Structure formats: structure tokens, C-alpha cells
TrEMBL record:
GO CC annotation, single: cytoskeleton
Taxonomic source organism: Coturnix japonica
Coiled coil spans: none
Pfam families (alphabetical): SHIPPO-rpt (PF07004)
Protein name, entry field: Outer dense fiber protein 3-like
Length: 255
């Protein structure tokens, strides 16, 4: 070992015995191991704090088999968690119409012609109106016939030239195509806040009440008759009128 260490020169350097341990003698992991990154959501470094991440995805395609109804089903406002709410009310149906069959009466039958079917009758000749004379000389004129057209796709005996048609723009694949096939926010009615939150006090404003209405009319001082006190006393006070005396009449002198 010493011979190899104390050998010939290798350039300007001669091999010698190392004084201590060097790091090259110990095997360590190379570039095949990498440190996880600190950005993103997947493969994040577990020793570092990860901030919330948000992703943007496209509209999901409609599934062939759905596990439940989606927003395309409209829920009626009267459907509650206890069932359908039906307010109390009385039903007023219409009057039941009794179907009647109109049958023929005695005057609808004619029994005069029934004898021909029962009894033997002689042959009878009938007289009809004179028919109009048939004109056998009428023939179609030259203007009755029309020649087939020579332009267009549907020709009779010649080959048609190519035809092109202009149709409207197809909605499939356009910028306004409805890929979700679901109703928008304006298709569903707004749910009242009282349905899922505590109901707040409500106040109403009525019309102004006219004077003398809304309350019972109370009697005034002139509506009472204070002279009738027979309910609490034997008799009401009363005044009388006597005869008029002459001032020249001698008064009665009594001792």
C-alpha cells in the first residue's frame, strides 16, 4: 500500500496516504431525489404551509344515469318539509248533468211505405227530370297542356345541374350553445327569506281613518236628560202655574 502511495509522479502530483476521511468515500443520494415544491396543490412540500387553492373547471356533461333530480325540476312553493300545504276551503262543483238520450217519437216514423215490404204490389214507374244533352265534341285546347320545366332540381327527362341552398346558422358548436341544458337563474322563482330564516316583524300601513269612523260614537252633554231621576228618587222636581190674582183684591185677614 505504501508502495502504491509512494509511487511515481502523476504529472505534478504524487499519490500519498490521506490524512483523514473524505466525503467521497461515503455513498450519498444523487440527483435522482428532488425536493417537493412549495407552489401548487399537488405534490406540495409537507413541511411548508399550504395556502388555499382554487381551480376552474368547465361545465360537466350530463350523466347517462343520474342519482337524483337536478335544478331542472321545479318545486312548487306550497311544498314544505311536512308535505303539501293545502289551505282550508270549500269546493263548489257544478251541477251534475244527467245524460239523456233523444229517442224518436211517433211522428218520426212513416208507416205508409211499409206496405210495399209486406204485401204484393204491381210494378210502378217513376218519372224523373230530363237530363241535359251530353256534348261529345268538347276537346281540350292547346293551353290545357303544359310542358315540364327545364330549370330546378326535379326535372323529368334531363339531368339537373347542382343546386345550392342557404340555410340558417346552426346553434350547435356556436358561441351561444347551451351545453349544460339546464334552466338559468331567471327560470326559477325567488324563495322567500322567511322560509329558511327567522321571520322578522312586519308592519302594514292602512288608510287614514275618517273622523267619526273606526270607533263607537259617544254621547255628548246634550244627549243626557238630567231631569228624569225617577230611577233613584220617588219623583222628579216639577213646577206648577196657578191663577193670576188681581192687585186690588182685599187679602184675607185672619186674627
Amino acid at each position: 500500500m505504501s508502495t502504491s502511495m509512494d509511487g511515481a509522479w502523476v504529472g505534478t502530483w504524487r499519490p500519498h496516504r490521506p490524512r483523514g476521511l473524505i466525503s467521497a468515500q461515503f455513498p450519498r443520494p444523487g440527483p435522482q431525489y428532488f425536493i417537493p415544491g412549495t407552489t401548487g396543490y399537488l405534490g406540495h412540500n409537507p413541511t411548508k404551509v399550504r395556502a388555499p387553492a382554487y381551480s376552474f373547471r368547465g361545465t360537466k356533461w350530463p350523466l347517462a344515469e343520474s342519482c337524483g333530480p337536478g335544478p331542472c325540476y321545479f318545486v312548487e312553493p306550497d311544498i314544505t318539509r311536512k308535505g303539501k300545504y293545502v289551505p282550508p276551503g270549500s269546493n263548489l262543483p257544478g251541477r251534475i248533468m244527467t245524460p239523456t238520450t233523444v229517442t224518436p217519437g211517433p211522428s218520426d216514423y212513416r208507416t205508409e211505405e211499409a206496405n210495399r215490404q209486406i204485401f204484393n204490389v204491381p210494378p210502378v214507374h217513376s218519372m224523373a227530370f230530363r237530363r241535359e244533352h251530353l256534348q261529345s265534341g268538347l276537346r281540350p285546347g292547346p293551353t290545357t297542356y303544359t310542358l315540364p320545366r327545364m330549370m330546378g332540381p326535379n326535372l323529368v327527362y334531363t339531368s339537373a345541374s347542382p343546386c345550392y341552398s342557404v340555410r340558417r346558422r346552426c346553434q350547435r358548436g356556436s358561441y351561444d350553445e347551451d351545453l349544460a341544458k339546464t334552466p338559468g337563474p331567471a327560470a326559477l322563482p325567488r324563495v322567500a327569506v322567511d322560509a329558511y330564516k327567522t321571520r322578522v316583524p312586519a308592519y302594514t300601513m292602512a288608510a287614514q281613518i275618517k273622523h267619526g269612523e273606526g270607533k263607537a260614537a259617544k254621547p255628548g252633554p246634550a244627549d243626557y236628560n238630567v231631569g228624569r231621576v225617577t230611577l233613584i228618587k220617588p219623583q222628579a222636581p216639577a213646577s206648577t202655574f196657578g191663577i193670576r190674582h188681581s192687585p186690588y183684591t182685599t187679602p184675607l185677614m185672619v186674627e
